[in-house]
């Protein structure tokens, strides 16, 4: 079992590349790997409960996928933290650094 | 303590990637890790010393009131943070990218290098993060 960190900086409605990234994360999860998905920049738009995004919904149901959203990016975009999926932890840059530097976890920026 | 190697490519004032990577490097240094940055392509201009702030005629603010953030100041700030926290911080500007853009006059701290230095850092650092342009 490997550990991955995906840093998703893009809005899923900006490019279909984001959905491809979500699919890769799901495939890794289905193969038994532990995955952290950290949303930053426009990537945090997907964190809103009202956002129709079935691919992210699927990821949130998986036990070995942990989803976080950058608080700075959330605030910058005027997103109310109450409107974020309860399964998504809104946190700061220190958390992202902890995951990046975690022994054995592979960081990937998208 | 571990070390992080980061490759960045976005030029100043172009992408939110720049602010995020500055925040990330700052936090990494404060947490006690060493950092090497390889500034490739447009990112070679991030440390360009002649960058200047400007007034904002739309808002009617002067240069002083506007306090326009300059990427060269953030680069200098990261060196200061590394010193304060006793960490090793390297900023390598791609030499060919610098020459192409005429941005060789940079703030104190960065050094000139080439892709071989990125490979060297890749081999020596615990983690590597590549932040490509879109």
- The shape of chain B, in one word, is globular
Oligomerization status of the protein chains = heterodimer
Query: What share of residues are in beta strands of chain B?
Result: 15-25%
CATH architecture of chain A: 3-Layer(aba) Sandwich
Sketch the topology of chain B as an H/E string, one letter per element. Answer: EHEHHEHEHE
CATH architecture of chain B: 3-Layer(aba) Sandwich
Describe what you observe in this structure.
- Chain A has helices at residues 17-30, 54-60, 71-76, 93-101; strands at 3-8, 34-39, 65-70, 89-91, 105-109.
- Chain A is α/β, with parallel strands linked by helices.
- Chain A has one domain (3-109): Hypothetical Protein Ychn, Chain: A (3-Layer(aba) Sandwich), CATH 3.40.1260.10.
- In chain A, strand 2, helix 2 and strand 3 (65-70) form a beta-alpha-beta unit.
- The two termini of chain A are 22 Å apart.
- With 134 residues, chain B is α/β, with parallel strands linked by helices.
- Chain B has a single domain (3-131), classed as Hypothetical Protein Ychn, Chain: A.
- Chain B is built from five helices and five strands, in the order E-H-E-H-H-E-H-E-H-E.
- Chain B has helices at residues 16-30, 63-66, 71-84, 95-101, 115-124; strands at 3-8, 34-39, 89-94, 111-113, 127-131.
- A five-stranded parallel sheet of chain B has the order 4-3-2-1-5, sandwiched between helices.
């Amino acid at each position: 079992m490997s550990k991955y960190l995906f840093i998703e900086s893009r809005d899923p409605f900006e490019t279909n590349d984001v959905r491809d990234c979500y699919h890769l994360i799901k495939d890794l999860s289905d193969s038994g790997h532990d995955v952290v998905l950290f949303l930053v920049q426009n990537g945090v738009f997907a964190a809103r409960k009202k956002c129709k995004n079935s691919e992210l919904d699927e990821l949130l149901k998986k036990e070995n996928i942990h989803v976080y959203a950058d608080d700075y990016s959330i605030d910058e975009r005027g997103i109310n933290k109450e409107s974020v999926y309860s399964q998504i932890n809104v946190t700061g840059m220190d958390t992202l650094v902890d995951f990046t530097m975690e022994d054995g976890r592979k960081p990937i920026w998208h | 303590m571990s070390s992080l190697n980061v490759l960045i490519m976005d030029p100043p004032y172009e992408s939110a990637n720049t602010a995020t990577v500055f925040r990330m490097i700052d936090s990494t240094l404060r947490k006690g890790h060493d950092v090497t940055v390889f500034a490739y392509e447009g990112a070679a201009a991030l440390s360009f010393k002649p960058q200047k702030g400007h007034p904002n005629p739309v808002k009617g603010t002067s240069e002083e009131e506007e306090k326009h953030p300059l990427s060269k100041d953030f680069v200098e700030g990261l060196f200061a943070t590394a010193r304060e926290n006793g960490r090793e911080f390297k900023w390598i500007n791609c030499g060919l990218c610098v020459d192409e853009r005429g941005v060789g006059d940079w703030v104190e701290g960065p050094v000139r290098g080439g892709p071989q230095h990125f490979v060297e850092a890749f081999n020596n650092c615990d983690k590597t993060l590549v932040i490509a342009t879109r």
